[in-house]
Specification:
By secondary structure, this protein is α/β, with parallel strands linked by helices. It has two domains: 25-115 and 214-330, 3-Layer(aba) Sandwich (D-Maltodextrin-Binding Protein, domain 2), CATH 3.40.190; 119-210, D-Maltodextrin-Binding Protein, domain 2, CATH 3.40.190.10. Helix content is 47%, strand content 17%. It is built from 16 helices and eleven strands. The protein has a six-stranded mixed sheet with strand order 2-1-3-10-4-11, sandwiched between helices. The protein has a three-stranded antiparallel sheet with strand order 8-5-9. A two-stranded parallel sheet has the order 6-7. Strand 6, helix 7 (148-160) and strand 7 form a beta-alpha-beta unit. Helix 3 packs across helix 12 (230-249), helix 3 crosses helix 13 (251-262) and helix 13 packs across helix 14.
């Protein structure tokens, strides 16, 4: 073989080695990935991801998150997570548990939103309804069957000893319309929709003031990602934690980021972020958590969802939770 042929053969060998190296696990970790977040750009739970993207926290933590897919509700988010061959998603607890019970290969890797503090029961300014006791016999809106809003209506009424008429309306925006038209007497709203309409509503009660911590949304990974993409999962959780801490320390700056990402005006974003970063009442927990699990809050949410058909059976958390991707100081439960 001539020296020229040897050089060509060596060049092809080196190119093949480089290609194989690009397909190695280490190289795969460097490749950008999308994540999926339920109601991102709509509901408050996903706001830290907007901050993490804008401030570069994911990249600082070592996760090249190229984009965030938004999905409406847990079932759609899980289908996007599994069907899209993605590694990480933020999903409601009951939807995730139901999917696991039906055979989905998923693991719960973080407890992201620890309360339902974004929820408010509101009326028109001139309404005679002043307290929860005045809900008796009235129509109270909720979004859809087996939704969090329906479960919270049931909890609120039970805790208050009041019998009312829960009424399916649709989305949170539709509830504002239904309230104005007189189709419901009370709207069950969540931020930022409530803050956007605060000038023409009167809050009667806030969930943070009357309900205990209830697990809102969780971080979920596929079984494949748990086995093959652990460093990416760790980095996503670190980046999200950095964003959460930034939001509590700099709520106005965070609100400006949220306003742009959620396409809402700055005053609305500020009201929503300040509402949700306010110090929790004694005995409660912050709204956005850094990943640590509140098992009691998870049990309470599953119990609430069972009352509206959103959950069934018993859950052995030891079989579905994997804490190893959390920072060391977050691996001990509340």
């Amino acid at each position: 073989m001539t020296s020229e042929r040897r050089r060509q053969t060596l060049g092809r060998t080196l190119m093949l080695a480089a290609l194989l190296g690009a397909l190695s696990p280490a190289a795969a970790l460097a490749k950008g990935q999308q994540i999926v977040v339920s109601n991102y750009g709509i509901a408050a739970n996903g706001m830290p991801y907007a901050v993490a993207i804008a401030k570069g926290f994911f990249k600082q933590a070592g996760a090249d998150v190229t984009g965030i897919l938004s999905s409406q509700g847990g079932g759609t988010t899980i289908r996007n997570l599994v069907g899209g061959n993605l590694s990480f998603g933020e999903v409601d607890l009951a939807g995730t548990v139901a999917a696991i019970q039906q055979g989905a290969d998923l693991r719960i890797i973080s407890d992201n939103v620890l309360t339902v503090g974004e929820f408010v029961w509101a009326v028109k300014p001139g309404s005679p309804i002043k307290t929860v006791k005045d809900f008796a016999g009235k129509k109270i809106g909720y979004t859809s069957p087996r939704s969090t809003s329906q479960a919270l209506d049931v909890l609120l009424l039970q805790s208050s000893g009041v019998t009312a008429v829960p009424t399916k309306v649709g989305g949170f925006g539709e509830q504002v319309v239904a309230l104005n038209l007189g189709a419901v007497d009370v709207a069950t709203l969540a931020d930022p929709v409530f803050s956007k309409n605060a000038a023409r509503l009167r809050p009667v009660v806030r969930a943070a003031d009357v309900l205990p911590p209830l697990c809102n949304v969780i971080g979920v990974a596929t079984g494949k990602a748990v086995k093959e993409d652990g460093e990416f999962l760790k980095a996503v959780l670190r980046g999200r934690r950095m964003a959460v801490e930034y939001m509590y320390a700099h709520p106005d700056d965070a609100a400006a980021i949220v306003a742009k990402a959620y396409n809402i005006d700055l005053p609305t974003a500020k009201m929503a972020v300040h509402n949700l970063t306010a110090a929790p009442k004694a005995g409660s927990l912050p709204y956005w958590g850094a990943g640590r699990f509140d098992i009691a809050g998870m049990n309470r949410m599953i119990a609430a969802q069972k009352q509206v058909g959103g959950a069934s059976g018993t859950v052995d958390w030891s079989k579905v939770i994997d804490r190893r991707f959390l920072p060391a100081d977050q691996q001990k439960d509340y």
